[in-house]
Amino acid sequence: MPKSHVCKICNEAFDTPYILQEHHVAHTGKKPYSCETCDCWFTTSSDYDEHNLMHSDNKFYLCKLCDKKFLEEKKLNKHFLTHAEKRCGYICQECNKGFYSRSRLNTHLKIHSAPKPHACERCDEAFHILFESDFVVSDCGNGNSG
Asked: Which tens digit of pLDDT belongs to each residue from 60-73?
């Protein structure tokens, strides 16, 4: 189903009129949601709700570069790109690795498209090279002992 609620300022589309309305606040610079525990203010209720969970005992993912916390690993990975883009001008969209030159990125991209003939016997993980040193597949714990 296409997103039919479009922002007239930036043309970003949203699923519901409520989300569009919250988005409009971002264009004003106002932050109507404040945290009662610390001195943080938020543009959207969802950002506020996510922040409040940081004050709880829930598991979170910590950015090692700036100590920002995230409830989801994918949000941490997306955030990490902001650091990589400051240091490296070329970011791999597959794995978020950063490179200082387009040629190094292009060389790196080949590992994502290269054949992966070496498969793990216990899980679906496959590799384009067979390691001669010890390693363990993080998904299943199986590995190679040199």
From this structure: 788 877 778 887 88
